[in-house]
User: What shape does this take?
Amino acid sequence: MLVVAAGASAIGVASCRDAAWPSAEVAPNHDGPPLDRLSPGGGDRLAGRGGTDGNGDASAGVANQAHGPAALTSVAPANPPASPPSRLPLLPSTPPNAPRARHVIIISEDGLRPDALLRAHGPVVADVMTRAAYSLAAMTIRHASTLPSHAAMLSGFDEDVHGITWNTWRPGRGSILVPTVFDAVEHAGQNSAAFVGKQKLEHVIPPGSVGLFSHPGFLCHVVSETAARYFVENRPALEFIHFADPDEIGHHEGWMSEQQIAAIRNTDHCLATIIDAVHRAGADADTVFILSADHGGHDYNHTGRIKEDRLIPWIAWGAGIRPHKIDSPISTMDTAATALWILGYPRPLSMAGRPVQEAFTN
Assistant: This one.
């Protein structure tokens, strides 16, 4: 699961995929609890330990308050594979480079369309945009759903390689097949953490790949407060923070509805919590933020068949960033590559994503 291997023998991605590849399936995109069931709760786990569901049960596959009994994400497939596909071993990688910052914080707002972000007129985002390198025309992968898209964002590989073809919480299904940015951080002996609003993201961030995986609740104010406290106390090299609110309201009230715009405006406060934590930790000069999304949406869903489903914002600010609008194409897979490049880590030669170096000075 390590990202780097100087001189390691190449393992054929295609051959591994042909040997044990999960079959594609159609799964509902909506995976959150009904609005009247949203409440704080969830579970944390340290790398290498089994997850909990917030009630102390030693099972990463049991959803609790944060998903509610109406969620279908805790149901395992009727005929799960006898043994889930194994993650790929060492991948031939680029040489390390000089780091540009000591900390990278990736913030993903689930279901956030760029035009919805602008319509929300959040004062924090407005301030950030004045000192950011940004694109409002970045694209996610064709399978514009939470799990496949986040797998691409955090690994730098598309669905046919990373192997996450489903979009529901299925504990027996296995996890992402390729290394992620968290593997790179852990291999370098540094600290990483993930704070998510959806338990199913554990398929993308499996045990042993991250220093801390935390599912403190569904709403962004709980997630952001937990993530902020952790950053101040531990200053991880990499922190991933996931806000589920825009997606949940989109599925219930519609994309671009007044209710969804209000939810996005509310995430502006959650973003402020994270920025303030970095300031309190005295890490402003050593941190790069990347704000993006896994997918957009239209009507009450996101199929990936139209551009509104695939368009996402990509906004970077902090240490070494050159404020300007980025005109070159950006893929969600570039987020992983950029995070590795910022931290000075090698990245797999076969990675589809490329560092967005245009965002930086020099």
